[in-house]
Amino acid sequence: MSSVSVCVRFRPCNSREIASTGAKSSRIHILDDRSFDFKDDKEGAIGFSFDRVFNEGSPQGDVFDFVALPIVQDAMNAINGTVLAYGQTGAGKTFSMEGTDDPGQEGILPRVARWIFQYIETADPVYEFIIKLSMVEIYMERIRDLLDSTKDNLQVKEDKTRGIFVAGASEVRRPSYPEAYQDLLRVSPNISDMNANSSRSHCVFLITIQQTNSEDRSVKTGKLFLVDLAGSEKVEKTCAEGKLLTEAKTINKSLSALGNVINALTCGKQSSMQSFFAEKACHVPYRDSKLTRILQESLGGNSRTTLLCCCSSGSYNAAETLSTLRFGLR
Ligand SMILES: Nc1ncnc2c1ncn2[C@@H]1O[C@H](COP(=O)(O)OP(=O)(O)OP(=O)(O)O)[C@@H](O)[C@H]1O
């Protein structure tokens, strides 16, 4: 019953873009909350439609409500889910996922954590909840623990009880929102130098929600992956050589692997039932990258995924924006 939706978020032009091409150089003409035209130098106006389009002024709360809320609600019913932020470096992935400390500017991660603990406060007391957090980064196909920097080169394993998991990754239990929020802040690439390669690595946050019914001892578990992907800029544009070139190629390869998996799961826009049969019928290449392997149980099967494509509306980054939009067309 895998279901994938794709949303697009445009960020406002930054000072560099305005200095280079002027404040009114937007390439985007929004038609409604699902569609827009992109003005291309060669092809003219290209029409795009997605499940939802967020414009430059869309509040963080609206993005959370559409992109993450249905997924976190399902996770409380043991349906795994994934939110992926995709886009070139500086496109607004971290702003969307983490946000800032300013009131109303919190991103998806803190809002998800807050929502979960509010839900627990009002839930039937018959349920006992355990909330666990894990955070890893994937850099050059190596998995590193963001909660314990001594744990590097971790391996993805699979067994009958745990399913697919990163062996040895720290898993911390958090009893309330403030503790969970502190963890998120501690590893935030914006304020920590722990993951020095933030734009060049995939940052994977996993929240596991376990509910035990204290009367019949039945247990339900939902896994929620929130992923700030590495920057998707093209290798040519980075003018990279040597190690940087290898890095850029590794990123492109894992993002292509992700695209191929999403493609195989959606095969155009199918109903959940069609997508279920498509997954059974065709090979989904989860093993082509560490990222897709880790996410396997929360992308396919009985799960729900939203891909948030972040881009700039300005002319300066038009080529990268078009490439991001085309990635999202699946
Ligand atoms: N929707 C938005 N509204 C206002 N400011 C934004 C928005 N999106 C991004 N920004 C600002 O643009 C800058 C770059 O955004 P951000 O760091 O989120 O990019 P990124 O895609 O995560 O880049 P990287 O790949 O380097 O991590 C930041 O200063 C951020 O605050």
Automatic annotation (TrEMBL):
Keywords: ATP-binding, Coiled coil, Microtubule, Motor protein, Nucleotide-binding. This is Kinesin-like protein. GO terms for molecular function: ATP binding; microtubule binding; microtubule motor activity. The lineage of its organism: Eukaryota, Viridiplantae, Streptophyta, Embryophyta, Tracheophyta. InterPro entries: Kinesin-like_fam (IPR027640), Kinesin_motor_CS (IPR019821), Kinesin_motor_dom (IPR001752), Kinesin_motor_dom_sf (IPR036961), P-loop_NTPase (IPR027417). Residues 3-330 form the Kinesin motor domain. Pfam families: Kinesin. Gene3D superfamilies: Kinesin motor domain.
